[in-house]
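Private note to self, pasted from the team thread so I don't lose it. Backbone tokens:
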């Protein structure tokens, strides 16, 4: 399979699944497995480098969508005044702490969960399905994000490190079940992951595991563009869907893909 086509496919998948509650890590695992199964041996030279590039694209698309909010948060944070922007930035820091701690302390154990664990991915997609279905039925979602909410949402994000559990699905569903306004839940979910993405990218780059020697830049650029454009569309779409209480459709999708992944694993 042509590496450019693979890069486009992976970019589109990353752009969609980073924001839609269907697990980007799970879908990339399944996609890589299917590509390899059908003889795709010419994947981009460095899978880790491609992963970094794709995550950079979706992080930048998030910053572009929420550029006004991000600028207000940064302005409020560096003014060191106890205003709404400063408090919101503190809540973001609180929410990202559980995932950051788990990621640093259990990095090797987490890495072993990736790399073809399709049965695990399928099972976690089914778990995501049930969570989305329950959240879609939630009522009285009128609250703002509080400090206690930030901790619980952060715990949900840490659990979503597992491949197959949607990060956005877990954090948005947890927020909605806590009674938080749906649109605010979606915005908080997307903003809270940006520092973690850039932190993980910096760690991967500084680790020395990424080599630029003889790397073909074309698939990386194509994948970045595909993920960035798709991410812009998916982010806006997801906010609209959460406001309209339409998470149940993603619940059905995750359940179907999870069952198919489990069946495919058992038959191979």
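Design output:
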């Amino acid at each position: 399979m042509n590496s450019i086509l693979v890069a486009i496919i992976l970019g589109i998948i990353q752009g969609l699944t980073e924001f839609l509650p269907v697990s980007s890590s799970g879908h990339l695992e399944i996609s890589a497995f299917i590509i390899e199964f059908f003889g795709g041996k010419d994947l981009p030279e460095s899978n880790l480098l491609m992963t970094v590039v794709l995550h950079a694209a979706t992080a930048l698309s998030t910053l572009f969508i929420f550029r006004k909010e991000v600028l207000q948060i940064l302005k409020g944070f560096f003014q060191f005044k106890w205003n709404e922007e400063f408090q919101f930035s503190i809540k973001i820091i609180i929410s990202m702490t559980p995932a950051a701690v788990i990621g640093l302390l259990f990095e090797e154990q987490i890495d072993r969960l990736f790399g073809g664990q399709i049965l695990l991915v399928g099972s976690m997609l089914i778990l995501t399905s049930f969570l989305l279905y329950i959240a879609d039925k939630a009522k009285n979602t009128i609250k703002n994000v509080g400090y206690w909410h930030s901790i619980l949402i952060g715990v949900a994000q840490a659990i979503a490190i597992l491949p197959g559990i949607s990060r956005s699905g877990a954090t948005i569903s947890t927020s909605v079940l806590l009674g938080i306004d749906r649109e605010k839940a979606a915005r908080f979910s997307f903003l809270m992951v940006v520092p973690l993405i850039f932190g993980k990218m910096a760690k991967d780059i500084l680790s020395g595991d990424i080599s630029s020697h003889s790397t073909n830049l074309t698939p990386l650029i194509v994948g970045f563009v595909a993920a960035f454009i798709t991410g812009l569309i998916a982010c806006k779409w997801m906010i609209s869907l959460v406001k309209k209480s339409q998470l149940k459709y993603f619940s059905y999708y995750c359940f179907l893909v999870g069952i198919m992944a489990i069946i495919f694993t058992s038959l191979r």
